[in-house]
Design brief:
Layout: E1 2-8, E2 11-16, E3 27-35, H1 38-45, E4 55-56, E5 60-68, E6 78-81, E7 84-85, H2 91-94, E8 105-106, E9 118-121, H3 123-127, E10 131-134, H4 140-143, H5 146-158, E11 164-168, H6 172-183, E12 187-191, H7 195-203, E13 208-210, H8 214-223, E14 228-233, H9 239-248, E15 249-256, H10 271-277, E16 280-282, H11 289-300, E17 310-315, H12 319-327, E18 333-337
Parallel strand pairs: 11-12, 11-14, 12-13, 14-15, 15-16, 17-18
Antiparallel strand pairs: 1-2, 1-4, 3-5, 3-9, 3-18, 5-6, 6-10, 7-8
Helix pairs in contact: 5-6, 5-11
């Protein structure tokens, strides 16, 4: 089978690999679609360190079970995965905080993931509930968003909201946040430099969209009488984005730095000024089992519109071009398929 392998920083190649062999309790998934995540792009650049190359990347996946050595899993079931395989018994796992488990292995990070024709889900992952089965009525084009939607739902639960929110970035994550914010009844403002992504945000219900210019920021400040109640930075949190977040939030407002940041990036705070502005600073990452269950239910209900998000498809054999396309921010979401 063909697979996209992250060999080392700045090195991605297409490999011919054997179809994974199963041990007792394992499951073989035939891929339908797998989305390219910004974390994969960051790993390839060398900006993040939670990957163990060489590894087949890919954790935003949709597939079908084609072989099962597990008594609880049937051939033909449509599935995705909770990509954080944890012990299931420690205090963190018992409290639905699997991402803090000391023994965690990530699908597409540490063990081979979905940028391949087939993927093996190990018995331990199945036994701990990390294989997520869904009705056939959910198309793969929606199913691949179950994990990113779960991340956004987790952040929405953790973040402090009042009446208004500014979402920085209208990539796939920012556009999911846009829809969730509107569902929550918030006045929703999206800041995005790329015009084609701003147009998608408008179709998905954003009240206003802005580029990142100083004139746009001044306009937003005027509209909101000094700034929004909450900012969710859903793009790469570089210095310019961090500064923008503080420009558009009101005093006493909440800032959630959801997006990844380049290695070594810092937020430097004057503590006296911080005291008197009263900002609430936080970061949300990943998901909980509960947020993935909520995501699954929203997909069943067709509660969100993913059609405008999935814009670019590449076969696995053209995986390097797919990564280039995603890195160049063409379209919105780039996916690969067999």
């Amino acid at each position: 089978m063909k697979a996209i392998v992250f060999e080392k920083i700045q090195q991605l190649r297409i490999h011919e690999k054997p179809i994974p062999a199963l041990a007792t309790g394992d499951v073989l998934i035939q891929m339908e679609l797998c989305g390219i995540c910004s974390s994969d792009l960051a790993a390839l650049r060398g900006d993040v360190s939670d990957y163990t190359p060489p590894v087949v990347m890919g954790h935003e996946l949709a597939g079908v079970v084609v072989e099962s050595r597990h008594p609880g899993v049937k051939i033909g079931e449509r599935v995705t995965v909770n990509p954080m395989l944890s012990c299931g018994t420690c205090a963190e796992c018992q409290n639905d905080l699997d991402k803090y488990c000391n023994t965690i292995e990530g699908v597409g990070h540490d063990i081979d993931g979905g940028y391949a024709e087939y993927m093996r889900m190990p018995k331990h992952g199945v036994d701990t509930g990390k294989l997520i089965r869904v009705p056939d009525s959910i198309p793969p084009e929606d199913l691949l968003f179950l994990e990113p939607l779960g991340c956004c739902l987790n952040a929405m639960q953790e973040t402090l909201f009042k009446d208004s929110v500014a979402i920085l970035g209208a990539g796939p994550i920012g556009l999911i946040f846009t829809q969730l914010a509107k569902r929550a009844g918030l006045a929703t403002y999206v800041l995005e430099p790329l015009s084609h992504r701003r147009r998608v945000a408008e179709t998905l219900g954003a009240d206003h969209t802005f580029d990142a210019s100083s004139e746009a920021v001044a306009h937003l400040q005027d509209l909101t009488r000094g700034g929004v109640d909450t900012v969710i930075a859903s793009t790469t949190n570089k210095a310019a984005v961090i500064a923008l977040a503080f420009e558009v939030v009101r005093r006493g407002g909440c800032l959630n730095f959801f997006g990844l940041a380049p290695e070594g990036e810092e937020i430097r705070v004057n503590l006296e000024e911080f005291h008197y502005t009263g900002h609430k600073l936080m970061a949300s990452w990943a998901f909980s089992r509960a947020s993935l269950a909520e995501s699954r239910q929203l997909l069943i209900e067709s509660a969100l519109n993913f059609e405008p998000l999935l814009t670019d498809r590449f076969p696995i054999a053209e995986g390097l071009a797919a990564f280039d396309n995603a890195a160049a921010q063409h379209g919105v979401k780039t996916v690969v398929h067999p």
